[in-house]
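Q: I have 503 residues here and want to know how they pack in 3D. Can you give me a structure?
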Amino acid sequence: MDGLRIKGSTLAALLGLTMVFSSLFTMVAMDSERSVLGQTLSTFLDKVGLTSPAPSAPNIGNRVAPSEAESLKKIYEVYGMIQQNYLEEVDPQKLVDGAINGMINSLEDPYSVYMDPKSAEQFTESIHSSFQGIGAEVTMEGGKVTIVSPFKGSPAEKAGLRPHDQVISVNGESLEGLDLYEAVLKIRGPKGSEAKLEVIRPGLRDALTVIVVRDEIPLETVYSETIKKNGKTFGKIEVTQFSMNTGTRFKEELEKFEKEKVDGLIIDLRGNPGGLLNVVVDMGHLLVPNKGVILQVEDTSGTREVMKSKLDGKKPYPITVLIDKGSASASEILAGALKENGYKIVGQTSFGKGTVQNSMELEDKSQVKMTIAKWLTPSGGWINKTGVEPTVAIEQPKYFFAAPISLEEGNLKYDQNGEAIHNLQMILEGLGFPAGRTDGYFDEKTVTAVKAFQKLNELPMTGEVDEKTAAMLQEQLVKKIKDPANDLQLQAAIQVLDKEAKK
């Protein structure tokens, strides 16, 4: 799918945390030798593993009793009633897909979904290549499309979207009542096109309007740099998601730093929405000391599989991990493993996703992605809905979370009131032009702050925020946010390493 990922990899990649273990993977087989009507109905029941005339076709988990399967004859009856009595002609496949979606939705699990063949194909393709869209991981919370995290450098990040934003409309079309994939189809789109999003942000009274220009979203997931501090050199590896080649790239950068004999390592998982389980386990083998536990996986029967590191001993340098509210799923596995094996975690409590999904492909190439297990930290803790807590808690300055200035209703000026003014005041304060208030009322002091900014940047001193002033404010805000000196979480992580590193 274009431009979004549904909880766990691109929307492309994974719904939350995809786990492919032979012990937990079940594929549904189907018999193609059936009549048209019988095939449609039986395929539906076969798809969900409730009945299977073909001896070779197992049901899902073998947990459906004959009495339960018998009771599902009601589905046949309702299907027949619709076909025979409904006023208009209905596509049989639409009825089948609707019934499957109904069952999946009744689970009330945002990570379990049904994808028709077209959606499934787009989902699979996006694991292996770049895609076009806004570049954000999404899930469904309270019936609303919710941002887990925008991708690094994506249009979504540049437009100011952030974790827990809820998208309620796209280009004037409401998303109310749509399932996650239907909503994503509204949000995604080709490079260069605009998505005008109406967004509800926690803590704000009014909805925001955020315009995102869709673009090509590359799947580079590992970025590295070195940081100097008090005569020491620290390596920093940022991992933006756990996709197919992330483990290989991480190992390359780690080995490069080890050859350079860095004095410490920062692993930045902020804004990382998760991805492939096998990839984060591979990375755990490189980092978790003394063959310690990386995680435990508990299936539907309560049986646990314990996964341990292959690393003998411990790295000769300290390691610190950065997390925030946008760190989810596989990010939380790695952060939890390193925390419980003695390393410091810096930042904010993570998203809180402790379940495992598996993808099951059906005969017609549609897919069911379903929650099949929970994952636990090395000590057996379940972080679902609570997240991994940092050992060093620190938040970023408020201006880090300011939205882009919107001039949808004209210039921002004296005597106006609302979230747009509150957002402007937060930006002005962050840039060193405090308005004396951040309650969303454009008073004389706000006018003075705007004029001071305009004067310093050689703009007409009108005291109003027009397009040129808004663009300059946004440009300087982005520049300030990208300056590592202003990244309080990064600076805290560096301080931790500086204290722990050998002198």
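Q: Anything worth noting?
A: The first strand starts at residue 4 and ends at 6. The chain has 14 helices and 20 strands.
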